[in-house]
Request: fold
Amino acid sequence: MTNQRSPLVIGNWKMQGSLALNASLVHALLALKNVSVAIAPPLVYLATTRQQLVGSAIKLAAQNVAAEGQQGAYTGEVSARMLADVGVHYGIVGHSERRQYYGETDALVAKKFIRLQEQGIQPVVCVGESLAEREAGQVEQVVSRQLLAVIEQCGIQALANAVVAYEPVWAIGTGKTATPEDAQAVHRFLRQLVGSYDKNIAENLSILYGGSVKADNAASLFAMPDIDGALVGGASLVATDFLAICHAAKASLVG
Ligand code: PEP
Reply:
């Protein structure tokens, strides 16, 4: 059984940017080589960003997708088929901001996951506990409930074409990062959980860490055996910071 995991860094721009700002940020990233990177601009900028990425290996990720279907009378929604049409490779589902502010449930996250895979887009399913849940000793209970909802709805094979992101809610946008050891413990737990269904899928599953990843903490996180890269929010909007994180990922591959 060989480990084919190589580090992946995804920048989640959230509801930030403009045509002008995006163009200069993308331009700065075009120099990246030999490391797997994706960026997730707001949906409205995906098509333009794709054009700016022509000739680059950087992939496009979506921050959201409609759960209902691939087309129809769903005002304001964007389907996975449309995302695929504009060249999207990854789709983020289950981000804590969507769970928290838009009431997205585990069941809805699983539906979005299915819609993405129907169109050949790799879901990036986010799981993570709140501070209260961590303090109550419920980390494993929460992340396993969130991941099992996907496994039960979609089947374990679905994780062969997906990415998991462990994002402790208390570390997102707060400047607080889980220690590499604490993050590693949860990543190992998630891999073992998947391994209880299928060892090969578990071994090859990329599990990213997210939560205030910065240029100065990325290398120590990437040095952990079960941390396969990062989902980066704030630092993905600053070209030098994001480039440094991507370079740390690349160095972890050769190191
Ligand atoms: C995120 O939004 O997925 C995230 C990890 O944000 P930040 O890096 O800003 O904590």
Summary: The chain has a mean pLDDT of 96. Residues 8-96+106-239 form a domain with the TIM Barrel fold (CATH 3.20.20.70).
